[in-house]
Amino acid sequence: MLALAPINVLDELLLKFFSQDTINYVIWPLVQIGIVVSLVAFWVAYATYLERKISAFMQARLGPMRVGPWGLLQPIADGLKLLVKEDFIPEKADRWIFFFAPYIAVASAFIVFSVVPFGPDWAVIADVNIGLLLVLAVSSVGVLALILAGWSSNSKYALLGGLRSSAQMVSYEVAMGLSLIGGLMFARTLSLSGIVIAQASDSIWFIVYQPVGFFLFLISGIAENNRAPFDLPEAESELVAGFHTEYSGMRWSLFFMAEYAAMVVVSAVAATLYLGGWYFPFVHRLEEAGYHDLYVIVSLLVFLIKASAILYFYFWLRWTLPRFRYDQLMDIGWKWLIPSALINIALTAIAIFAVQALNGWRGIVTLQAMDRGLNLSATGKIIMFAFGLIGLVITGLLLSRINWRSRDFNLKTQRRNIRLVNLPKGKPAVPAS
Amino acid sequence: MHQVEIATTQETLLDSPEMVLNMGPQHPSTHGVLRVVLKLDGETVIDLDCDIGYLHRGMEKIAENRMYTMIAPYWDRLDYIAAVSNGLVWVETVEQMMGLSVPPRAHYLRTILTELNRIASHLLWLATHALDIGAVTVLLWALREREEILKIFERQFGARLTCHAWRVGGMTNDAYDDFDKDCRQFTKNFPNRLDEYETVLSENRIWLSRTVGIGVISGPEAIAIGLSGPALRGSGVAWDIRKSRPYAAYADIDFDVPLGENGDTYDRYLVRIAEMRQSQRIIDQALDKLPDGPVVAKLPKIVKPPVGDYYHSIEGPKGEIGCYLVSDGSAQPYRVRVRPPSFVNLQALKQMCIGHLVADVVAIIGTLDIVLGEIDR
With CB atoms 3.0 to 4.6 Å apart as the test, which of A46, B87, B328, B366 could cross-link to B334 if both were Cys? Predict the structure, then answer.
């Protein structure tokens, strides 16, 4: 268990009241869960603050400045305001479904954090061997909340928002799942900690092998979270507020929290799978020098920074791009993302096969071991990286061939410029003296 | 409030795949209090009806009970985004009925200020249009530029939005001391800022896919409906009242008229952007040529136009603002009729929208650039 001195003291204290098993399997997990939930809640709250600040800087404004220094207490003030606001339920709404939908949203977003490896050793609550499947399964329950909220509100805008979100999330779930397979072929495990260890033991981030997979995962993750430019279910200019049009007060803010928590989840999974999770070069020397807990904490910070960088990418996109239309969104999902995910799987399989086949041919050593993921030698890594780059080109070519006839493909050539005409002047209505 | 036809069809949700969606009057992107009743098949619009009148104030009737000089401030409230142009059409109509000759300095100042107002109006259009399509950042950038113009207006007129600028026969005040400096400062910075907006939108794939081929209206159709302003020029019809019947000082000024080709939302967007650049050119020229002298003509104590009727129109930011005036020789008009460009342009909404999706309805309302104060009067 934890090796920090005060915690040891606490451990001995607890032993007076509970058995060792109770402490190991009940008390410490509860403490861990408490820490993680509060950490995530803090992260989510300050993600809203950061989003407001970042958008403000992009738009030549200051953003929140009044509550606390630089507006740092703004999330707390917002939370308090939303807590005391009236929680209004429309008369003709389906009361119970309306009541429970936000909880489903929040629960499905927060449960995923149980398997996310924040760091090595004690910084992960549960290391289950189906980690990634659990992430996909639980986060796709979130769509149920949106459909139920849209349906139970008994409002046409909410209904349209719910319909859009269900179609969108179901389509992008496919692309998201398929885009992960490439990375899994290298890791050879579904456990999220296992994926990180596979990258750490190989001293590489999977983004190097899987550039296509990384971008596909990011894009489908944005769509999965209903963020701009795919924020159709809540497109405020068309559907007022989409599925949460009728929600107010705390229930509305639960949806809001769920959205941000889901964003953090996707950032965390992307960081784990493609950016090496908590692994960073040279950090393990702390472990070798004997500072185990320092090593865990630094790794945890590394993970948080990586996930936050992806989160920043989200904010950046949101405040830069206009919104897609519903049919265009479906086009992108089915005609671009899913084909490219399939192409990526095929190319990755070919690449791995080729690297394995090359091992030993004319004295080339590409493979070191197969115990923790696919451990490649330096030559193997270079070959795999080259395959990744070739994969980018091949995917681009195939995609453009698939979508050659689509209307949106050649927009720039379709449009023509306006012309400036110097019209002849008519007789002045007013004699300009 | 007239009964909207679509809403009365006797269909339940289960009998047909169609859904009647009430968009507005309280809706974030109907630009005020426009109510659009949409009949949807899935998300495709199959029928549509507009319901207006939520902002009706009886401007034309009020005008019948006021003296000619007292009506002018009311006119600023027609299209509150372009108050300067609206005020101008009233005073010019009265001046022409009376055959007054306005001092040249007043003509030039009118040109500069209406062009500033055109830029302000187009910037607000750009801001809201981009917001409707989802590009939020452009909103704040465009409003930042508009703020510069509003600062000039505030110093010149004492008001930012409904600035009352004109008197029959000239202007209330001469330009303030730093007017020339402020305007030149603005026209110096403005082209770079416009380039900035264009980098975000003009070549943006999402922006293109949301606007190219959306809300197409051909030139003859546009003329048949009576569209005017950028909405007409976007369809390639060369018509600009500043050129065909020059008013104020436009006869002395050299500028181009941008014309679109396809008549879609993207062309109208480009036309308006190009119009802003031309406005900046006009302001620069007018500032160079600005003559000295008085800014108001000698007027009789009571303005009493001769018996008769008169129609005068100017090229407002949204299209042809016309004013039809019947005088019975007294100090109050017998009948006043405004031709608001937004009202006429809104007629095209149905034709443009049918067959498109709900998201496009929002884009098309944005591209028509309507102001409800002007539609409902």
Answer: B328
pLDDT in tens, B212-268: 888 888 888 888 888 888 888 888 888 888 888 888 888 888 888 888 888 888 888
Question: Do B273 and B211 form a contact (C-beta atoms < 8 A)?
Answer: no
Which residue(s) pair with B159 in the sheet? Answer: none
Tell me which residue of B296, B76, B60, B66 sits closest to B168, measured CA to CA.
B296
Question: In what order do the strands lie in the sheet containing B333-339?
Answer: B308-315, B320-327, B333-339
Query: The pTM is what?
Result: 0.83
Distance from CA of B168 to the nearest CA of A (A): 14
Read off the pLDDT of each residue in A173-194 and give the average, rounded to a whole number: 85
Check which CATH number belongs to the domain holding B126 and give it: 1.10.645.10
Closest residue, chain A, to B278 (C-alpha): A420
Taking an 8 Å cut-off on Cβ atoms, the answer to whether B270 and A417 are in contact is yes
The string of pLDDT tens digits covering residues A204-247 is: 888 888 888 888 898 888 888 877 788 776 666 667 777 777 78
CB within 8 Å: B252 and A432: yes
User: Domains in chain B: how many in total?
Assistant: 1
> pLDDT digits over A101-149, tens only?
888 888 888 888 888 888 787 767 777 888 888 888 888 888 888 888 8
For residue A343, give how far its alpha carbon lies from the nearest alpha carbon of chain B (Å). Answer: 24
SS3 A229: coil
Asked if residue B4 is part of any domain, the answer here is no
ipTM, two decimals: 0.77
Q: Is residue B10 part of a domain?
A: no
Query: Beta-carbon neighbour count of residue A12 at 10 Å?
Result: 9
Phi-psi region of A232 (alpha: psi -120 to 50; beta: other; left: phi over 0): alpha
Q: How far apart are the first and last CA of chain A?
A: 94
Identify the residue among B114, B128, B209 best suited for mutation to test binding to A, counting A beta carbons within 10 A and taking the highest.
B209
Q: Which residue range forms the structural domain that includes residue B332?
A: 71-352
Residue by residue, DSSP assigns A276-324 as: -TT--TTTHHHHHTT-HHHHHHHHHHHHHHHHHHHHHHHHHHHTTS-PP
Q: Do A326 and B132 touch (CB under 8 A)?
A: no
What is the rounded CA–CA span in Å between residue A152 and residue A158?
Answer: 9
B9 within a domain of the structure (yes/no): no
Size (chain A), residues: 433
The DSSP 8-state label assigned to residue A93 in this structure reads S
pLDDT in tens, B51-75: 888 888 888 888 888 888 888 888 8
Q: Does the distance separating the beta carbons of B249 and A156 come in below 8 Å?
A: no
User: What letter represents residue B275's amino acid?
Assistant: E
Q: Which of A205-219, A276-290, B328-342 shows the lowest per-residue confidence on average (mean pLDDT)? A: A276-290
The answer as to whether B122 is a domain residue is yes
If 0-12 CB within 10 Å is exposed, 13-18 middle and 19+ buried, where does residue A139 land?
buried
Position A379 confidence tier, pLDDT thresholds 50, 70, 90: confident
Nearest-Cα distance to chain B for A306, in Å, is 26
